[in-house]
Amino acid sequence: MEKVFLSPSRYVQGKDVIKKAGAYIGKLGNRALVLADKFVWNIAGNDLANILERSDIRVEKVAFGGECSKMEIDRITELSKKACSNVVIGLGGGKTLDAAKGVANQLGLFLTTIPTTASTDAPTSAVSVIYTDKGAVESYRFYNKNPDLVLVDTRIITNAPPRFLVSGIADALATWVEARAVKQSHGQIVSGGAPTIAGQAIAEKAEQVLFEYSLQALEANKNKLVTSALESVVEANTLLSGIGFESGGLAAAHAIHNGFTAIDGNIHHLTHGEKVAYGTITQLVLENKPLNELDRYIGLYLQLGLPVTLKDIYLENATDEDFYKIAEIATAEGESIHNMPFKVTSDDVVQAIKGTDAYVKNYKKRHGWREEQK
After folding, report:
1. 374 pLDDT more than 60
2. How high is the pLDDT of residue 154?
3. Looking at 148, 272, 312, 348, which residue is catalytic?
């Protein structure tokens, strides 16, 4: 099996880097379709459009509908055709960026992603998660190339709510946990092929950076400061995690996240990263990792305020039928859970989801953790 490494063509991160967007994007095209939701248009989109227009780049403004669905991608594609765009720019969160990828791929155009939060690793990847119009994961789309340009303005990101940074940390902390399992099982990466040493090394580095700097970065974000710690965590959340998952592979954590999307209820108020956080601990339970490793993750997650009990993810009163529905989706044919170095059944997943809740409650008892410590 061939080894495969994927990455964006250029990644640029820094404070106020959006002010240089015209110089960077102008090398790709002069007729840009800019996709952002209504909120992001107000906080950054209009400024970006003005910056581009001053660089003689014509801008077609498009409001993102909220879900990265087939219908939404097709709608935006038609608007891009009418505007004769030669570059697509996605500005905002993961679903907006994934939709922009879908449009650029369908039309064979250059693609720039500009995240306004560090909440996911979507900006760098060549994959879109496709949802139904109701928000359930439907499928994945894999593209022949990654974004041509990723622009990450850390001043914009530090002005976003801290919850988004924490969600990105949770998503990124799954990267090495999953890549390590893929390495052990000699599994495949999401686009096919075997993981590279480089991809796995980057995934491992993401974990190291996040354990070293997450708490400092969170405090910087709370105070809207761009510090070295914040820069490090933004890079880990975005670039290291993005390359790490795509070139290192996914396993149980994200499959369990996908299972959660099949359940109705308040769990849908959680972000992608918050649901992945529970999935990550669940994978560690499935792997029967020793208590010191579980404690390491649980301790950091609790300090960051991430959901790690069934009550936290609104499943405290879930029925066995609910849990098995989650597990059946998580273990469906083609899911990344089959990259684990051992066979995982739906019953194994149910036991591990419940076991995670038990382990976390035990941790809180052993460490005298109180709810007000969050």
Report:
1. no
2. 98
3. 272
Average pLDDT, the chain: 95
Write down the pLDDT at residue 371.
Answer: 62
| Mean pLDDT to the nearest integer, 58-75 | 96
Q: Give the CATH number, domain containing residue 51.
A: 3.40.50.1970
pLDDT digits (tens, 9 = 90+) for 251-269: 999 999 999 988 889 999 9
Query: Bridge-partner residues for 149, per DSSP?
Result: 112
Report the number of distinct structural domains present in the chain: 2
pTM of the predicted structure, to 2 decimals: 0.93
Do 154 and 166 belong together in one domain? no
Same domain, 24 and 136: yes
Residues 75 and 151 in one domain: yes
- Please pick, among 121, 254, 312, 357, the residue that the annotation labels catalytic: 254
Active site residue 272: yes
Indicate the pLDDT class of residue 331, thresholds 50, 70 and 90. Answer: very high
In sequence order, what are the residues at sequence separation of 6 or more whose Cβ sits closer than 8 angstroms to the Cβ of residue 362? none
Residue 132, pLDDT score = 84
**How much is the pLDDT for 373?**
56
Domain boundary among 127, 142, 158: 158
Show Cβ contacts of residue 123 under 8 Å, excluding neighbours closer than 6 positions. 8, 97, 113, 114, 115, 147, 150, 152, 238, 242
Candidate list 153, 171, 312, 348, residue with the active-site label: 171
Sign of the C-alpha dihedral computed for residues 213, 177, 166 and 225 taken in this order: positive
Token pair 């591990």 is found at: 352
| Same domain (yes/no): 63, 148 | yes
Rounded to 10°, the helix 197-222/241-248 angle is: 150
Task: Specify whether 287 is located in the same domain as 327.
Answer: yes
| Strand, helix or coil for residue 321 | helix
Predicted local confidence at residue 58, as pLDDT: 97
**Catalytic-role residue among 98, 148, 257, 357:** 257
* Owning domain of residue 236: 162-373
Check if the beta carbon of residue 38 is closer than 8 Å to that of residue 65: no
- The verdict on whether 153 is a catalytic residue reads no
Cα–Cα dist 209/233, whole Å: 7
| For the chain, percent of residues with pLDDT exceeding 70 | 99
- The CATH code of the domain that includes 229 is 1.20.1090.10
